[in-house]
Amino acid sequence: MKIVVPVKVVPDTAATLKVEDGRVTWGDAPLVLNPWDEFAVEAALQTVEKHGGTVAVISMGDESALEAIRKALAMGAKEAVRIDDEALAGADVGVTAQVLAAAVRKMGDVDMVFFGRQAIDGDTGLTPMYTARALGWPFVGLVSAFTEMDPAGRSFAAERSVGEAKQTLRATMPAVVTIAKEFAEPRYPSFMGIRKASRAKVPVWTLADLGLEAPAARVRWPEISMPPKREVKVEFIEGATPREIAEKLVDKLIEAKVL
Amino acid sequence: MSKIAVYVDHFGGKAAAASWEALTAAQTLAQGLGGEVVAVVLGQGVEALAQEAARRGPKAVLVADDAALADYVPDAYADTLVALTAAHDIAVWVFPTTMRGREVAGLTAAGLQVGALPDVTDLAVEDGKIVATRPVYAGKLLAKVETEPPAVVTTRVRAFPAAEAGEAAAEIISVAAQVSETAQNVQSLGFSQAAQGVSLTEASIIVSGGRGVANTNKVPGDEKEKAQKGFEMLGELARLLGGALGASRAAVDAGYISYDHQVGQTGKVVSPDLYIACGISGAIQHLAGMRTSKVIVAINTDPEAPIFKVARYGVVADLWDVVPELINVIKERGLAKNE
Amino acid sequence: MDFQLTDEHRMVQQMVRDFAQKEVAPKVKEYDRRHEPMPGVLERMGELGILGISIPVKYGGQGMDYISLGLVSEELEYVDSTLRVVMSVHMGLCALSILHWGTEEQKQKFLVPLAKGEKVGAGAFTEPGHGSDFARIQGTARREGDVYILNGEKMWISLATKADYALVTMRTDPEADPPHRGLTAFIVDLHSPGVTRGDIKGKLGVRAGSTGWIAFNNVEVPVENRIGEEGEGFKVTMSAFDRGRYTVGAGAAGLIRAALDASVAYARERRTFGQPIGQHQLIKQKIARMARDYEITRLLYLQTGWLMNQGRRFTRQASLTKWFGTEAAFRAAHEAIQIHGAYGYSDEYDVERFFRNSRGAMIYEGSSEIQTLIQADYALGYRYDKPLRKELPPYDPEEWLAEGA
């Protein structure tokens, strides 16, 4: 089997974020492999360990993307490609998906694409769906387990969450899936893996290599800001009876949009 | 005239309440862009849902009631919506950001090759552009995003008021399902019960108890037994709200509840939308674990308790009086996530 | 001069940090309170290859360099000293001594299982009556045919009841003058008949670990287990201490960093007199000193690791790192408690554990006083390093990564 895992580099979750000149900064906090992508890499590794094959990672970004790529290689991915092109500045989800789809096609013989649920910076969670449609492949989201996996027969079945319930979907390969964290705890990189990863030469593909013209972004992010600081002054809820208090409190909470 | 279409998310015969919030957002877009709001319902045997949608204010309800859509399959649903877009001149799709809503929204936007503004907390139209705000970096920052129609928008749950149900019922129009070959290669093999319970660190609502939980004459038994009953009651409130149960260090140390529930600097650090602290004084190490919660409610008999310094809403009363009433009110108003 | 850590180093550091945070940090306080070692931790460290990190691949290790050993020590001690103690004795005292002085047969027999984490190693040198004056130890090893008979008692041995093998130094020549010439080192299988061991409870710190005594009662040790020549035991032991001190010093950097991180978090949160206490000058002073001492200790241990990589003698630097780092760690933990006020005095916060843990490091692996004398004598020219008969192998990536015997 050949499973491709697109990965992204993001600021560490513990980083203190600030907005300076309209741009997000995180001081000298490190950039790391997007935590959700780790689950996708782990799921891919477990799947090829069971059914044979290899895991390849792709990442769209500048050299900082190597941080994410190396972690995935250290965990056990065998191949990696980085996609970088000046024309990709300001790319939105649609553009990213076109690029990832073109890279998957260029790699060839890909059976499945495993995505993490979302990137913790943009939090859109849309890239996997757009990529599936760009490839024309079926999409199965938030997979917590594969109940069937038949690479020779070109099909698989997966258990996934749809909110109120779990659903099992069967689909043909090739397909795009996103992996939920219930799938498995990501493994630590082995020391052997760390060594291989740090020595790996990761090829870079440009838009020209992918045979793509710079696609136009449709969504723009004109501004980013810190949420307003709320000065908290407690409002005491009073009532003649506990029932009255409860009613008033619930009203307030609905108004505050938390209930 | 172009339409703003609202996807009505539903499961097990029940509409997701967030769908009516999406309807409200759609009305805002219709006002700004010009156009009519229609609701869209997909599935099989969904007449009742369509009728409910019809009373929530759209101009019309498009219903694709078809065996091909009997089971929820995101690709099939998205294909149908894509087909409807051209056929009915739909300029913007609005989805509630439920798990299903997000999936179908993404596939639909991708199928239409338009931009999507996901999980927005507010929405406006400026110079023919759709402009929205959405949380990014796990909610630590806010981003303003914009795109031109045609486009897809998904509304964050509880960010918009729900469109009210009225007397007037809109026209219900039958439309065709459309399932591409790709979607035909996906079948639903069935549904099963989802695992119950949500983890402290992921819960968007936490009900938490402290030392004060054991301090009561309303139930019999020794201190531990009282505390156990108390935490059961708080746990019930948490469960009803689809949230998690937390505790202060004092409660854990006193043996009232296990360490997994401890919230605080030396327990778990949490940041839910709603944190209800019952019988918790608000010592600094507890505050360090929950003070970034969006809304903090404190219930404590001591008006001087430090917790009131960080609470948005305070109730100076016995939690044993107030919590049972909260449970009643929530059940009666249909706010419970889990019955 | 390149002060950058390589990608490899950074990834090793991150991996060990993640392991310690995820699998040890949540429960360490509980076991510390109970004075009990945490179950399963040694096994996990073995499984993950941490116990063989700086041993060549062909001897069952992970083939990482000595700087990696230091980084691992820092990350482990950040969570709790007991984790780093494992590295100090298993790797620093035992495994690396076999790599340094062992014959090829000894490496195959003992080093390989140690590096793979299949066996755990320790170092047994200190006796109830002899710590700093190690040269005068009393335990004996008498040659009889093709075995040595060991008698004596060793005390304050980390992993005494957990280890499978120990590097043990005994007196083979009671008449030797000066006495240090009469010592010989052995690898002893601690499951041998005549070996009894027990735990020492009631220590001030390092409570989630295992410290004990080992008694040797006519224990037969084959001649093949002798490490180095007869009479070389003192040199073997001193070289073991060099490596132990390196890991202790690197670990101290981790403890300082832990005290610093805890103090910074608290100082930003806690408010007095209308502002976070981080704004008060006397608190700033404490924080500044911790930050300074972390940088210094870190640079010292990285330099020491670099010398080891180069195959150069590092006795002076290891001693300096250990001396400076452990004293700085104690000060850092002490001030961290002060910053936390009354909360620091309770075990709700971790700083009191750092304090208790840090106190031991100034005593073991060569007390601060011993290190002081060592440094003085180097500076005064009364002490200089003569080449040893054998040196610790330098780090050679090609050699260390080569597979097979």
Task: Considering the chains and any ligands shown, give keywords for the structure.
heterotrimer, A: 259 residues, alpha/beta, C: 405 residues, alpha+beta, four-stranded mixed beta sheet, 11 helices, globular
Care to describe what's here?
The complex is a heterotrimer of chains A (259), B (339) and C (405). Chain A has 259 residues and is an alpha/beta fold. Chain A has helices at residues 35-51, 65-75, 93-107, 127-135, 191-199, 207-210, 242-255; strands at 2-6, 9-11, 18-20, 23-25, 31-33, 54-60, 79-83, 112-116, 139-150, 155-161, 165-172, 175-179, 204-205, 220-225, 235-236. In chain A, α2 crosses α5 and α3 (93-107) packs across α4 (127-135). Chain A starts with a strand and ends with a helix. In chain A, 49% of the residues are buried. Chain B has 339 residues and is an alpha/beta fold. Chain B is built from nine helices and 18 strands. Chain C is built from eleven helices and ten strands. In chain C, α3 (66-79) packs across α6 (233-269), α6 (233-269) runs antiparallel to α9 (351-361) and α8 (315-340) packs antiparallel against α9. Chains in contact: A-B, A-C, B-C. Chains A and B meet through α3, α4, β9, β11 and β14 of A and α4, β7, β9, β10 and β13 of B. β11 (165-172) of chain A pairs antiparallel with β13 of chain B, so a sheet runs across the interface.
> What is the number of helices of chain C?
11
Number of DSSP E strands of chain B: 18
For this structure, the quaternary state is heterotrimer
Q: Tally of extended strands of chain C? A: 10
What topology, given as strand order, has the largest sheet of chain C? 1-4-5-8
Low-confidence stretches of chain C: none
Short overview:
The complex is a heterotrimer of chains A (259), B (339) and C (405). Chain A is α/β, with parallel strands linked by helices and 259 residues long. Helices cover 31% and strands 29% of the residues of chain A.
